[in-house]
């Protein structure tokens, strides 16, 4: 039997509530060479910064928890007041590219330039530079870790190699999972082959994830999007899940940055994975 992970406050498991606050930036990047005339998906995604994020902030405030928002620089520039509201409400701002660019689509110099630009802007809003990063669509390149470390970033939250924090090179990895990403359930732009899942279906699935984490002593890292989970019926079910987690009494709830700092403070001898940076790429 493996040794249990030492979660903050001696808790049995952990929950991070996170939002990829990307609005229309993924579509702008994906269709940059052939902008469509159809504005339907753009407007659907704009619901996030226009309205959805306010539903999110109201819910988090009522629940009394802090979340992590991974924000593309373009969103912070275009919807600065909404991102300012996130910071003013006490939540963590972290990097998510400039216009939702996957690291593998850029050279190291281009990645450095885009993340520096985004870090400068988020730092201006928050009064301090972001400590963390999440790659767009969880698509990560090995070279990005060195760029992030050089920029003073201390954690990444893009990969799925463990269900507890671990180390990749100089960075703490706070892992994610497709099963706890709302886009798998809710994303529907008219082209998908199935309708979006209902809020109750996602709540049932994530409640099972929470139960499993409590049994195994692991992390649930929820990845949500204000344009999806910011819809009223959906955000109400998130509030129910947070209430359940708090009522359990054995689940630590906090930001990704707080969890990464906790992992760093543990020092050596932590019973989890440490991955040399030169081993995460394609085997030679």
TrEMBL record:
InterPro entries: Glyco_hydro/deAcase_b/a-brl, NODB_dom, PgdA-like
Ranges for domain NodB homology: 37-254
GO BP annotations listed: carbohydrate metabolic process
CDD domains named among the record's database cross-references: CE4_HpPgdA_like
SUPFAM superfamilies: Glycoside hydrolase/deacetylase
Any one GO MF annotation of this record: hydrolase activity, acting on carbon-nitrogen (but not peptide) bonds
PANTHER family the UniProt entry points to: POLYSACCHARIDE DEACETYLASE FAMILY PROTEIN (AFU_ORTHOLOGUE AFUA_6G05030)
Annotated protein name in UniProt: Polysaccharide deacetylase
